[in-house]
Structure formats: C-alpha cells, structure tokens
Amino acid sequence: MNRLVRTLVIFLALIGLGFGVFRFTTFEYAYTPPNEKIVNKNQGSAKVQSISSDEEAGSDEQIQLGKQMFFEESFGNEVFFTDILGLFDGALTIPNISKAILRLKGEGTSNLKVEAAQSFQAGNRSIKKGELISTGLDVAKGSILPLGIKFVVDQGRVKAGVSCAACHATVDDNGKVLPGVPNSDVDVGLALAMGTNTAGYFTHTEMKSIKDFIIKTKENTENTQKISLPDKEKLEKYVDAELVKWPKGSNDTTIDFNNDPVQIPDSFTLGDHPYGWSGQGQIGPFTGLSAAINNAHGQNMDTLSQTEISEPVLNIDKELYIGTILQNAANKKFRYDPNSNQKPSKFFESVDPTPGNPGVNTLVKAVTFPKISFTTSTGMLPSSEGYKVWEQLNAISAYMNSLKTPQTGLERDDAVYAEGQRIFSRAGCITCHSGEYYTKNSLVKVEEIGTEPSRAGGFKKTELYFADPKLYSSETPVPIPKNPKVKKIPLSEQQRKSLELGWAHGKNKGAYKIPSLYGLYWSAPYLHDGGVAIGENFEVGIPNTLMKNKKADPYNSLQALIDSDIRKMVIQANQSAEETSTAHVSGIGHEFWVDESTGFTDAEQSALIHFLLRLTDQK
Asked: How far apart are CA 196 and CA 529, in angstroms?
C-alpha cells in the first residue's frame, strides 16, 4: 500500500513539475495488467482469420502485442482530447482524477468518483463544484491509472488519451481486470460534454444545418480569406446538451447527424462476425474485425480525421468544418482565429503534429484515400510509425479473438439448465442463434427485426464518396512509402449484397447483425441501443436505472427482452424521458416472446434465462 502511495505521489509530482523541470521531457504511461490480475486469463485460440495477411494470424507474439495495444495504444488521441476538445479543462481535470485514485489507497473500483473542479450544466444535467462525478472509469487494484487512460507529459503539457480498454474492460469486486467485458457504466457523453470545446463533436447530434449557428455571415471576396464560423458559445451549449443524453455504457460512433448512441459491445469476438452493430465489418483482416476497430479509432477519436470527407459526405465546406472545430481549441497553439486572413486549412497545416495526414492522430491514408471503402469509414487507418500498416489493428483483433468470457459465478441447476436449453430450441431462438457461437453470422434487415432504425442507416451517407476496397500489402511499413504494393479485395455478388446491406447503401435501409449470445451475463442492458434495462430491484427503463447510477440487472433485463408485458413497461419508461426519446434509445423490436402470449409458463421462461446466463460457464 505504501509503495503504491509513494509511486502515485511521484507521478503526481511529475505532473506538477511538468511545466518546469520536465518542460523538454516526454513521458507517457498507461496500465496493462499482468496475467495474475486478469480474471479471464485462460485465452482461447485466435485462429487464422486474416485474408489480407501473408503471415499466419493469431501467434502468441501477435496476441501479446494486441494486449499491449488494447490497454495502452491511443494512436495519439491525447492531442485531440486534451489540446482541441479540452476534455480535462472543465469540471473533469487530470489532477482531480489523480486525487480520486489516491483516495482509493490501492483498492480498485468500477466507478471512479472524481471531485468536480468547477460547476457544469448542460441540458438536464447539472453538477456543482466539489460534487463527486460518477465517471464509470475502472481502476484495477494496485493501479495508479484508470483502465484505458494514458497520461502523457509532452514538453511541459499534461495530456490524457484513450485506448480500447476504457470502454471494453472492467474490474470485478476484488479489483481484478475483466478484459472484453463492456464498461456498462462509463459516462462517455458526460465526459465529452464537460470538455471546453465539445463543439468538435457536432456531427454526432441532431443538427439540421451548421449554418443555423452562424450569427453573422460575411461573403468572402478575392481580397480576404476570412470565413464566417458558428457562434462558438451557442454551438457549445447545443452540443453539450445533446451529448449528455447518451446513457452510460454507450457511445455514438457515426457522423450522420443523428444522435444515436450505441451500446458498447463486448470484445469476445471469435466467431461473432460480421462486426459492428450493423455488420459493417465483414472483409479484410480477421474477417472484418480490424475494419470495425478502425472505425472506432478513425471516426470517434479525432473529428479532424474526417476533413477530406466533410464536403462530399457531410455537405460542409472543408474550411468551415476545420474552422468550427478549431476556433475554440483548448490549447492556444491549435486555436484558429476567424478574424485572421488565413484559411483554417492553412492554419492547421502550420500546427499539425502529423503533417501530410488529415487530423492529429497517428493515422495514415488508406489505399482509397480520400474516398471511403468497406474497410475504412474515413479513408484513414490508425497506424503508428515503426509498425507495418494494419499491424497494430490486427494485433488488437488477435487479442480480442483470444479472450474468453469470464465465469459468471452463478449457481447452476443441471435440470433447469437442460430445460432452458430445450425451451431455447422450442421457442425458435435457435433459428438465428445457432452453431458453436450461437449466431448465424448474418444480418437481419431493420424492417424485419423492428428495433430502433436510426443506427441501421448510420453509414448511409458514405456511399456518396465510395471506392472498391483495396488494401496495402501486409509488409507495407509506416510511413507509407511511394508506390506500395496494393491488393484488391475480390467480392462475390453475395458478399457485395451483404456489405451494401450492412452499410445501408443503395435502396437498403440497413440491418443489424445477429450477435453471439456469449457473455449475456456481462452485457446488460440489451439490444443495440441498450434500451432494455431493468434494475436489481426492478427499476424499469433507462431513466430509472443508468440515468440514476443504477446498473441493469442481467436476469431482470433478459426477462424484459423476452416478456411482452414487461417490455411494454420498459418502452413506456424510455419514451417518457426527453433524453432517451430524443437520443433514439427506446428498447423496441426483437419481438420474440417467451411468455404466456406464446404458450410458455413462468417456470419455462425462467429456465430459458437460467440457461442463457450460464451459457459459457463450462467453456
């Protein structure tokens, strides 16, 4: 304990001295748990699922690299989150996060409570200075940082970035780490909204037109480079109010001008393809898993990475797009002055930490750049200098494929379990959730499944600036050399139709993938919008659970998924709250009832739930 305290004090001292002694020093740290601190450490085979690589995928070396990337790799997003978004310049600050960890005295927590450095108000959310913020960040026992958070001291400036583990790992009651289990109470929307320049996330809202926020317009002439930008206070207030609507454990991952957060999925990915809620990850390395990870890091961690697609996809002038994001940047170095005679793009070129590539993260241009393809939703690829292209993403894929679901610890009644397995077949669940991984590995049209439709069409606009998929050779180094070897990915007619359905291209309205049923105990609430939630004491709906800092109970929530009467209560509760109704979190659809309406008794319903929650305990 004393050793931990001493380590943390030294680390805090480093942060404090960063502006003096360490002005010209670069230091970074993120926590990767050793195997003895991981609960589900008995990993399965990653298997060979890489059609683009000339090497065998899933080696021990690749999995170990993937583990490091999963917990530590931010692809440089600390620049965007700290210097541009100002994530830690508002109510949530790095010193207060460190103090909160110090107060743990070496114990772990699944919900780090951080003292608000200043008051905050957005929409219906209000926090007073000094109040404890329930961040949902997880801290392993003995760690000095939350899972998935990287601290960086760069020439005197303290920054923090985010890796996969912030959302896709948690800790148990003993402070041990559960990689792959979704962080169901991390408050992504609130954390972003507390930043000083959350306006940079304006494409994740219900905005009709950015022009509605421009108070005074001035026509550009041949003699001036000035550009009219939105009123930054008005825009900031609007975006903050939109993002605080996101339920805990969710994140909006598309830039389609719909506020439609998606529940954070688990990372037990082996056999669970296609990937992403709509099944957009289908081709490329690891059967599309690397492409799905690319979307998470490319679209969500650096809005400037979408600069080249802003006009053809979002119908926003490139200069207006860049200027809107940078006019209120937290770090003065990145702050664009709209009264200058310099175009936003020229200004950004002068401060860009990754010259030659859009955005500030360590991204490289994909083969199809600036166009989008079925393997990259931004035309970019997260990849760091010194690695081969796709090497880091593929390693993360191999690690995620190696993860097994943790044991639930639930008692099992063999007779009830066997009865539940019979009900699973008799009720028709096996029609879609069949095979070793309890999924047909296919998509269901949104019209058929009947769930909240907004997310199914999240990639619809990408078809406006699209190219046939191509990949660099697996040996291609970063930085990308001139004339690299390129491979075209051949698509059968069936593959193309499936991809167009997953991306909502053509006349398709989109689809949702049939997920594996592995790890249901760990993934409540249910459905892609996370709308089916019931608390431990039968609190109904998101407004009475996650919005009140109460977790969704897996048994009760699963019952609501298959019981028509309880589901009606859930939907009514979700629709009664302005936050959930306007963020498209309803819990509707997937009407496959196992209750009295379809001839099943309460005992049979309970047996099915008993079976589903213990599905992988013996694997």
From this structure: 27
